[in-house]
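Fold in tokens:
===
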Amino acid sequence: MATTVTAPRGMRDHLPADKARREHVLGVIRGVYARHGFDEIETPVVEDAARLHSGLGGDNEKLAFAVMRRGLTTEDLRQADAPLDLADLGLRFDLTVPLARFYASHRAELPSVFRAVQIAPVWRAERPQKGRYRQFVQCDIDVLGEPGQLAEIELIRATTAALDALGIVGTSIRINDRRILLALLASWGVTEQSAADRALITVDKLDKIGAVGVAEELGTTLGLDPAATADTIRALESADWDSVRGADWLDAEAFDDLERLRAALPGVDLRFDPTLVRGMGYYTGTIFEVAHPDFGYSLGGGGRYDGMIGRFLGQDVPAVGFSLGFERLVDLVSLPGSAESDAVVLVYDKDVDPVRLAALKAEALDTHHRVRLEKRTKNMKNLLAGLAEQGFGSFATVGTDTTSLDGVEFRPLA
């Protein structure tokens, strides 16, 4: 029986051109975040299973890959009540839960306000489909220990600067506050915490099932009047800063906080959206998403999660995070053309002495940034086009009589 040679379902290989583009995007983002004072950390790809299933990850906990304990016996299998009884570790499904654990472990070694960068793969047992993978890179920045709006301001500034540096223009930041959402639900008579959690999960489906679909689901699960609820949701979809001010359902204190944040971010297109939920149940205050008029999906998002770290540390620590949708950004960014210092030495045929080739490459490396040897092919056009996609800027041809690169012409690939 032949074995498959494709990548595991929902995961991908990356060819050189794609890998180069990914590394370019990562380099730009890392550079911007470093300039804004964020320090990069690294955490293990696995965490204790009990921590990953402690209620901090919301629905993502259901998608966690479990790692079975070593040395399991058939008796262990018989005695297990549930599959998770056989696991002691799991692959991380996001970077926020590991960050909370990291901070609780190393707080004494960290500054009182810690600005963290994490860029790393995470794993979720998603149903694979276009744009949705089981392994993907998350790109997070977080501010821990700052209770005031300075944290949100820094995060939004750094994020918009990263998008600008990548050449992605026309974005806006949709913003809301969990307190406003809870006040809205209370005006509908939904005050019990578990009922409010279910309602927010439904409202978060607004972009998928529309106002009528949300209203009908709320009517089924919570007994709300579908017609009246649909009318309210439609009005909220077109709401802005001015139209909601003074509304009887609005949490005035939370809205004032958002307006102060808006005033502190001139030049940032900050749009109030009272229907913005963000799916994670651990958010406690400000929430935000990056929107673009040309795309029906967000390019990033985050919010304040003041209660999470206290679950590990025993005392609450204010925390806010912003995650860029790295996989989506990679598809939108083109690799910039390289300078002609990036050269390719082309070999005519197999008869060129390999020792001489190595010497020619060493000579080229003395004066060029990047050098690669390529054997001459029948279809040179395709070869050169592929090299251009990988960031090479120029090439030279060498033959059996080439003893030095002096006088050899380097020609542009493009």
